[in-house]
User: What shape does this take?
Amino acid sequence: MSAPASTGAQRTWQRFTPTERVARSMVYIVTAVAVVWSARTVEVIPEFLYDAPEQTADLFKRMWPFDWGFYPKVVHETLIETFHIATLGTILAIVLALPLSFLAARNFTSNPFLNILAQFIFVSSRSVNSLIWALLFVAVFGPGALSGVMSIAFRSIGFIGKLFGEALEEAQTGPIEALTATGAPRSMILVKGYWPQVEPAFWSVALLRWDINIRESAVLGLVGAGGIGVALDAALNNLYWDQVGLILAVIFAVVVVTEIVTSAIRSRII
Assistant: This one.
């Protein structure tokens, strides 16, 4: 502690304590060591980096101008299929995730085993990337849109279920206790007590996940799960860079449009 004012000593203010400063320094040192170690482990070849700007510029030159005639032949149909995969996958995920979210919500389901089981399913769903799910379902169902729908659905269960379950747990207890005191059945408590409070969260999560699934379904075709990724994979394998540029531009435009649309819908609903 600084000396009293009567002794003439000035108080000095320090943002962090000595222990905190040592801890922050250790974090910086560990981070620097990790970065250096990682850079040496991945074996970055400097020669490949020197001409990277030239290679990038040359690649963009090959992509322009776009092969606009390729759009009505292949891109449009695969783009519509991408929307179908994302939409059906999101709907299936909602159907599967909602019951699990009620099991995960501790204020709705008081059984700890069911709570842990639902959380385990959510973690398992989120821990596997959509491309890995797609590879699995392509092996089961074969190449095509069905594998894409299933991979999108199983990837989305953890996202939708976790967020909707947390919204259920944050519901106010007043209306629920009032309905319980009147002897209302559990179904009525759900419809009149929980749903009005969590409805905005439900639509927000559903729209956000659909927006994300549009982006993810665009690349599932790279592993044979249908959608516009199939056309992208074929163009890449054949080195048709003007077609690749067109497909990438279409994907970018679709992502921007869906972001604008979902934001507008959410602003009206919530």
Summary: The chain has eleven helices and no strands. The CA atoms of residues 218 and 251 lie 7 Å apart. The mean pLDDT is 82. Residues 62-269 form a domain with the MetI-like fold fold (CATH 1.10.3720.10).
